[in-house]
Amino acid sequence: MNLHRSLPKCLIMELITKSSPAPERGRIAAVGMWDGVHLGHRFLIDYVRVESKYRDLIPAVITFTCHPLSVVRPHDMPPLLNTPDERLDRLDRAGVEHCIMLDFDDKTRHMTAAEFLRALKHDYGVDTLVVGFNNRFGRDRVDGIDQYRQIASEIGMTVIEAPEYTGENAPISSSAIRKLLSEGKVAEASRKLGYDYTIRGTVVNGSHVGRTIGFPTANIHPLSDTTLIPSPGVYAVRVTLPDGTQRPGMVNIGTRPTVTDGTALTIEVHILDFSGFLYDEELSIHFVERLRGEKKFPSLKKLTSALEADAAKVRKMLCK
């Protein structure tokens, strides 16, 4: 995976590799998956930036090309809140200057805490590591910040513990946000993220039933198979079109029980007051609020009436 080539052109964040020139000053970094880059993550990033000025070090974050569980326990691998590109974009927006992107492979999996810290220092110039209040690393699962500090001191590094985030919408974790989305609580999840939960996808061909009842839809195929899909239901959303403009819309996630007996999950978005050709184009779906659960209606007429009521709610909610 060549993430360098796929980064948005607007990024000012620098991706650091082993071959990057050695920095004039050492780095201070925090390590994690950073899935979602939520409010708690941004609090930790701000803490790293403050400490960097105090210690005259370059602020950085360390992340991985894949979720560690995909290697350690693949069956427990959770769906993710961001694609790798989205995660990097969010880190950049959060003010990260340097990002160290590591491959999490079998070698990384079996590193002890000491081996991991030594690699960070020797290969990436990390002099100080900021450890989150519940952060652990290394196959030996070191117990507590004091042991990390002792190991680091033997290598010539410093380990400091970041305070716990206790601000708005605390407590916050990626797993808690995933749980909220799996329950359809997109508004609550977005408050913890600090932005509307978003799915990016390509428009693919569908059954065209919506067009026959006055609600044409675009079928969305997520860009990543690991993307977390909120629970089935109808949602008020904002849709970013290929030209960058946003339109209000509504999304149905489910199996379309009124028009098909299938079991395949689909993501269909109806964009209010829009007509145009979108096949093979990329859209971003920003979830605002859940309107209702998916329901099997006795007829297409009843379904149309429900969609009209859904559209009226979306207009009231988003068309101000």
The arrangement of helices and strands along the chain is HEEHEHHEHHEHEHHEHEEEEEH
* Oligomeric description of these chains: single chain
Tell me the strand order in the biggest sheet: 1-4-3-2-5-6
Beta content? 15-25%
Uncertain segments are: 1-11
Radius of gyration: 22 Å
User: How many distinct helices?
Assistant: 11
**Structural class of the secondary structure composition?**
alpha/beta
Distance between the termini: 42 Å
How many strand units? Answer: 12
Helix content: 25-40%
**Main sheet overview:** 6 strands, parallel
Q: What general form does the structure show?
A: elongated
What do the pLDDT scores average to?
Answer: 89
Describe the protein in words.
The protein has a 6-stranded parallel beta sheet with strand order 1-4-3-2-5-6. The two termini are 42 Å apart. It is built from 11 helices and 12 strands. β5 (126-131), α7 and β6 form a beta-alpha-beta unit. It is elongated and about 75 Å long. α8 packs antiparallel against α9. Residues 1-11 have low confidence and may be disordered. It is an alpha/beta fold and 320 residues long.
